[in-house]
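User: For documentation purposes, I need each entry recorded in a consistent format: the amino acid sequence on its own, followed directly by the corresponding structure tokens. There are two entries in this batch. Please keep commentary to a minimum and don't merge the entries.

Assistant: Recorded as requested. Entry 1:
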Amino acid sequence: MSLEGLYSALSGLRNDSLWLDVIGNNISNVSTVGYKSSRAEFLNSFGQTLSAGSADNPAEGLGGTNPAQVGLGSGLAQIDTLFSQGNIQTTGQNLDVAIQGNGFLEAKQGSQTYLTRAGDLSLDSNGNLVDDKGGLIQGFNASIQYTKEIINSFSSVPGQPAVVTHANLTLNNQNPANVSNININPSMTIPPKATTQVNFAGNLDSFQQANQPGGILDLNPGGNPILPLSVGIDLFGFNMNNAKVQLAPLPNGGYALQQVGDLTQNTAADPYGVEYLGIDLNQAQASAGTYAWEQQPPVEPATQASETTYDSLGNPHEITVLFYQVNDLGAAGINNNTAAGQSQVCYAWYAFDTTGGKAPASSNLLGGTGISEGAFTPPLVNTSYDRGLNGLYIGDFIYFNTDGSLANTGGVSGIKPALLPQPDMPRIYIPATNALGVVSPRPVQGAEIMAVNLNFGTAGVLGQGKRDGLFSDAEGSYQVVNGVNTYVPQFTAHAVSQDGYADGTLQSLSVDRTGTLQGAFSNGQTLALAQLSMARVNNPEGLESVGNGYYQASASSGTMEQTVAGKEGLGTIQGGALENSNVDLTVELSNMIIAQRGYEANAREVAVINSTLGTLATLGEMSAA
């Protein structure tokens, strides 16, 4: 009898013992955060060939024979790490993170960067984001980026144009070279951000017209204009040919704005359309007391919208926009609209600085789209804020398609000559003038001039117009007022949001699904302060475990690639949660029984072979005697 059976049994004992070691390690880590279970895999060991076997021999009528081989037991193939998803458990700790899907966090200790799935994170005394082993978590930090914009080509000081500085907290997460230790000062304060845009939404009722005789807004009662308008042969004598709107006389005196063409279609003969309108801000301010908002009693606007904005020092400024429906929609008593275009709702808008409760007045009328700070008469210099040709600027109307959708943005749109490049979104400026008494703006009281875009929505043609901002629908109703059936308009136009804020201190942190650390500040802002870097390798099972829940790349795993959650096949992040161990106790206990029985069987085989060898030795002694 040979010793092959003994060797086979011994290899079985060794492998079953190793399997029990793996099972025991899995069970001991059943509560370890982010732990990934291991699995032992075995293979049979090639042994001895007793006969090689033979092929069929039809000539002699013989079939083939199989080879006769005796194995020498089993051996270890490999011990795999199983990166299946562990259960996600909510913890309520804001900085805890769980990875749902593929990928690893990066933790740095000394010069070595490790990969981990354990997301129990916190800030140390220096503001570094660390794991429970003190590893420095890697990612992208936000930083303040400053850009400057020239807003006036005709400066008060020659060679020193007025500028606006934009400060933005920017997360530079596109270049892996920017990955570093995530550091957040728990008592950090963000600087103020000057408002650059106010967004509007809601309905400017299509039926409303000011409370004037016949329901038409009289633009020139008693020979004194109530609104600063320049259109066609206008109230100020500014002559425009081919205008799509004109002043039409009212039966009892005065004028209304009459549409005589399709407002939405500019042509080569009329490239400016209704947008080629301007207001001389100096003249408007010199006419204090004559306009609608200053008359007694004042001519009420159709509606108004206010929003608090912020300058570069974080000082609040309230902007109030008044809306006046200025066109005649074909009411009886004056010329109806021509066949050149259907009736379209048209509003004029005016922006005021009403900070501190100031009422709208010509003195605080803001320079901006449709309002030229300076004079139209030659020489046209120092007239406005970088308006293009000689500083002249145009457009102060908002008008709509016949389906109620927005037809223009309140600024300039349509065909424009190359010499008059204009923004499609209107912009206003605070302050309108400065303490030096010149028309071109310079910083006042330590803060830069504010340049604020008014986003009234996206313009579109009939049938394709959008309603992502202002629209004009007949949403009101007829009601009996003082015994008269009266149309009562419905207005929902309002300022939705603005992007400026005062300074603020950090109040709390949270982590979103992209691994971005969002900071909530005392000024009501929530800003991205950092983002976790996520790593991937082609073969996660090839990673080498170095303990403490850490892994490092090996030749088998492939090199580590850095990106962020949700990209390039990586999973997402769940904040305020942890990934539990993926050990399945039912499987491990079942495997333990199998390993135990295998061990016992192999031990029994050793005992049997030992007994057999003892018998053989006894026979040998007897033969020798």
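Entry 2:
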Amino acid sequence: MSQLQDQVAQLSATVESSLAELQAKASGAPALAARVQSEGGQLRGLVGDLQSKVSAADAQIDARVQQATQLITTLQERAQATVATAKDKIEQATSGAEAKFDEILTKAKALRDKLESSVTTLKGQASQLGDKATQLVTTLTGTRDKGLAALTAIPVDSLPKPMVASTQKLIDQGTTQGTQLLDKAAGQGQTALQQLQQQVGTQIDNASQQLSGQVSTAQQSLSAQIQTVVSATQQAVQQLEQTAQQAMQQAMSQADTLKQQALAQIDTLRASAAAMVQSAKGNIEQRLQSLRSQIHS
């Protein structure tokens, strides 16, 4: 029960007690008793009408409070929905950026594998060069050993003396020729090795330059992609945050405006009802006082 309803209830109790008192005093005068009874009915009607009006005012105040509360709640829910949507979009943007980074990392790994494969190929070529050098040395050594063994196996000492000199001369010539052939073969082999070394060195230099260029280009490309993703994600997040903040600020401003309007309307209704109660109370008290004067006269 509101404060105004309490005042009306107190007024009703005052009217009833006053009428009971006046009816008791007018019991010996039928005309006055009839007047008190008639006036009492009118006063009770005024109190009842006042109670109805006060109840209607309270109902209007409650309805306005409920309406304002619903509007404010709706604003809050909309703002919260906007914020939730912004959060979801921020998560989507972040997830998209993470997926893009994963893609970039995959490209970087593929580039690394390609570089490692190229390096492995160059190492294999260098290893083959070493194997060829070893084979060449082995071949020359075997040829020399075989030739020396063949010359050593010739039984020069068992030949007749006239033949020893000529045979020894032939052996010496064979040895000289074999040594020359071996030297020539060694020179050719060394030249071939040098040419191979130059070729492999050139290939390594060319491959290094190509790989260096590829690495530089790839680094620039990946860096640009990463920067693009980061910039786009940051921009999207900032826009979403601004949208969420603006939605919350707008909702708070509208809610505050609705609150102030509702409070002003409620104050107006209360003031109007209070003035009505005071006016009715004054009128009733004046009429009761008039009855008392009539009975006492």
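Summary note for entry 2:
The chain has one domain: 3-296.
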